[in-house]
Amino acid sequence: MQDESFENSAGDALPSRSKKKGIYMLPNMITLAALFGGFYAVVMAMNGRYDLATSGIFAAMVLDSLDGRVARLTNTQSAFGEQMDSLADMVSFGAAPALIAYEWTLRDLGRWGWIAAFVYCACAALRLARFNVNTGVVDKRYFQGLPSPAAAALVAGFIWLMTDTEVPATDVTWVMFCLTLYAGLTMVTNVPFYSFKDLSLKKSVPFAAIVLVALGIAVINIHPPTVLFALFVLYGFSGYAVYGWRKAKGRPTSVISTSTDEPDERGLHE
């Protein structure tokens, strides 16, 4: 039988066809589901169903927290998956919250409304790009700036609360304007926000910890929109508390260690 390989000038056999490459199905399907959550939120906002629109954002948040963990547990991490995750985040936590906020009430402010929505969307893109670049030089215990899912939770959580309590959108237009700008601009600050990445679910915990989790679930069920939005607000301001505490103690406020890949950014994160 004739050999299917070829030989180069040195007599070494060369394979006739290159090895095919593919992508991992499970984590990328979860990422696609999160992307659909953001797309669904935009469509529902266009139809005036803001309750369903905010549900799409929160569903995307849950799925976004799972894809990376599933990839690590199944050893299916890939560069493709990382890029796919960033693009999905830009839609679900960047464009979608901005468009929902604009459709809900910011359009009543004219140019100021779309400026606030654009600032949020642009800051989300900048935050995600910076996160990808600084992944290897940031303290894993903290995020540099407010993470985009938390920023989306602030915007969508406020709309959810106002919709659930039947507060007219026109009564809180300027509150939405300020909250959108705050969430957007805080994403691109150097303020440290706790990432919870040093918490391991594989370690044993005291029995009291399980009781506290049960109590937390019970408290949330009292009125989910109010309790969850309060938690989002606490986290959204917690970074400035950490920043002030570090500043008062004379400790470094930056979560950047050293960066040799981006020499032009040296000294910008002090």
Low-confidence stretches: 1-7, 258-270
Helix content: 55-70%
Number of helices: 8
- Count of distinct strands: 4
Gross CATH architecture: Up-down Bundle
Reading side by side through the largest sheet, how are the strands ordered? 1-2
Class from secondary-structure proportions: mainly alpha
The CATH superfamily is CDP-alcohol phosphotransferase transmembrane (TM) domain
Level-1 CATH class name: Mainly Alpha
Global morphology:
globular
Q: Which sequence of SSEs, written as H and E, runs from N to C?
A: EEHHHHEHHEHH
Distance between the termini: 68 Å
Which fold name corresponds to the CATH topology?
A: Four Helix Bundle (Hemerythrin (Met), subunit A)
CA radius of gyration is 23 Å
Taking the sheet with the most strands, its summary is: 2 strands, antiparallel
Protein model, in words:
This protein has 270 residues and is mainly alpha-helical. It has a single domain (25-250), classed as CDP-alcohol phosphotransferase transmembrane (TM) domain (Four Helix Bundle (Hemerythrin (Met), subunit A)), CATH 1.20.120. It has 8 helices and 4 strands. It has helices spanning 25-46, 50-73, 79-104, 111-133, 148-164, 173-187, 207-220, 224-249; strands spanning 6-7, 13-14, 142-144, 192-194. Strands 1-2 form a two-stranded antiparallel sheet. The protein has a two-stranded antiparallel sheet with strand order 3-4. Strand 1 (6-7) and strand 2 (13-14) form a beta hairpin. The longest helix has 26 residues, at 79-104. The chain is globular. 32% of the residues are buried. Residues 1-7 and 258-270 have low confidence and may be disordered.
